[in-house]
Amino acid sequence: MTMARRIVAEGLGTLLLLVVVVGSGVMGARLAGGNDAIALLGNTLSTGAGLVVLIHVFGPISGAHFNPAVTLVAVLRRELGAADALGYGAAQVIGAVLGVWLAHAMFAEPVLQVSAHVRGGWGQGLAELVATFGLIGTILAVSKHRGEFTPVAVGLYITSAYWFTASTSFANPAVTLARGLTDTFAGIAPASIPLFIAGQLAGALIALAVFGWLLAEDPA
């Protein structure tokens, strides 16, 4: 695939991912009648299912990163060049923001918003470290041994991590930045974003080191 097609695939895939995340959050909150557990359940199931489909659709074109942390790991593993990674990262962030705005427009919400949903405290940062560690580990291990199952594994992992992490598993810097621009169920206050991204990048790097060692081939 040409680089132009790969970058467009990353942008479009990330856009659709944010439509899923934010749109299902709005729908869940509206239908749940104030019950956050039911709203989160709807948000979770839609996100996990959407991820499986989006990875199947865009994986053959760009690898379906949709996530600067995944792209960073690909660069460090020398699977992607630095210049290509910059294109991927820009497409992911722009796509994520456009996806938030599109979700707002579909639900007749104000398109331009800033979240007031504070997600603070060291536990939230630790949760993002754990969430991203698990996501990168899932991708590295499953793609090595059962590559065709990777889209399903990622979708299932994120579905689970929504519930076992204190942060509801953003695990993605582009998604985190874009969710700062929605004051709906899926939002995160801008002041909380640096802690989340720090946890995500730390989790990605730790996973790269740990799973790089675990999955290394022993010399014959």
Automatic annotation (TrEMBL):
Compartments, record wording:
Membrane
Q: Name one Pfam family in it.
A: MIP
User: Transmembrane segments in this chain: where?
Assistant: 38-59, 80-102, 122-142, 154-175, 195-216
Kindly state which keywords UniProt assigns to this record, in alphabetical order: Membrane, Transmembrane, Transmembrane helix, Transport
**Stored InterPro entries:** Aquaporin-like, Aquaporin_transptr, MIP
Q: Does the keyword Membrane apply?
A: yes
The source's superkingdom equals Bacteria
Q: How does it sit in the membrane?
A: Multi-pass membrane protein
Task: Identify one Gene Ontology CC term for this UniProt entry.
Answer: plasma membrane
- Gene3D superfamilies per record: Glycerol uptake facilitator protein
Listed GO molecular functions?
water channel activity
Q: Which family does it belong to?
A: Belongs to the MIP/aquaporin (TC 1.A.8) family.
Q: Report what the protein is called.
A: MIP family channel protein
Q: Which organism is it from?
A: Novosphingobium fuchskuhlense
